[in-house]
Design a protein that fits this description.
Helices cover 46% and strands 14% of the residues. The chain has one domain: Rossmann fold (3-Layer(aba) Sandwich), CATH 3.40.50.720. The chain is α/β, with parallel strands linked by helices. The radius of gyration is 17 Å and the shape is globular.
């Protein structure tokens, strides 16, 4: 689909990657961007095409209200996410996984369910789900987050199949660590949110189902197909060498 002239809704748009998505859409010629956040006052209105929207993706009421308030969108970007950096058997891991699943999985499913009929009326359009390289493997240091992204990948793939006949493109976006507030505590190479946003918009234009937004995504994709046992061994080594 064309990004130019599109009407988009971006979740988690008040900072980081969500803010970068909003700015990239405007620069690409989007007609309107609903910038959604739990606190709409946190949205910087830097362009008259931005409309701040109150939306907590964990609230069914908020999601239903958003679908009523945004009947004209043809592009949904599910960006809102949470990372709690919990190993699988750590103290509090069950609570961490529940919280991550609520945002990263059920939040995405709620949004797709509510907005798929809107997109159908508006010609099909596209849904973008912000996933991660840990949709494909499990890092022991953030294993509960990985579980949520594995599940979000299944939601993405399942929705793509079901929405195919209504002409809705469903895109999974994969990246390593992105340089946002979510990863400030992580000492590792990071990709800029602007690069991820630009790669995503190009994927929309080209009709790609999977967008590898950085070098890390490409490398992990290839490694998991060529030698998954090596990746597992690297994760074991990472765990054994933790501080």
């Amino acid at each position: 689909m064309k990004v130019e002239g599109s009407i988009a809704l971006v979740t988690g748009a008040n900072r980081g990657l969500g803010k970068a998505y909003t700015q990239a859409l405007l620069a690409a010629g989007a007609a309107k961007v609903y910038a959604a956040a739990r606190d709409p006052d946190s949205i910087a209105i830097t362009d008259p095409r931005i409309i701040a929207l109150k939306l907590d993706v964990t609230s069914q009421g908020d999601v239903v209200a958003a679908a009523r308030q945004c009947p004209d969108i043809n592009l949904l970007i599910n960006n809102a996410g949470i990372l709690l950096q919990s190993p699988m058997l750590a103290e509090g891991a069950e609570d961490a996984m529940r919280r991550e699943m609520e945002v990263n999985v059920y939040g995405v499913l709620r949004m797709i369910t509510a907005f798929a009929p809107v997109l159908a009326v508006n010609g099909g359009g596209a849904i973008v789900n912000m996933l991660s390289v840990v949709s494909w493997f499990t890092s022991p240091l953030n294993a509960t987050y990985g579980a949520s992204k594995h599940a979000a990948l299944a939601v993405t793939d399942g929705a793509r199949i079901q929405l195919h006949d209504q002409g809705t493109q469903v895109i999974g976006v994969y990246a390593g660590f992105i340089d946002t507030d979510m990863t400030t505590h992580i000492d590792s190479a990071k990709v800029s949110p602007e690069q991820v946003a630009e790669q995503t918009l190009e994927g929309i234009r080209q009709g790609r189902n999977h967008v590898m937004a950085d070098r890390r995504a490409l490398d992990v994709w290839q490694s998991m197909r060529q030698d998954p046992a090596r990746v597992e061994a690297q994760m074991l080594q990472l765990w054994q060498q933790r501080p």
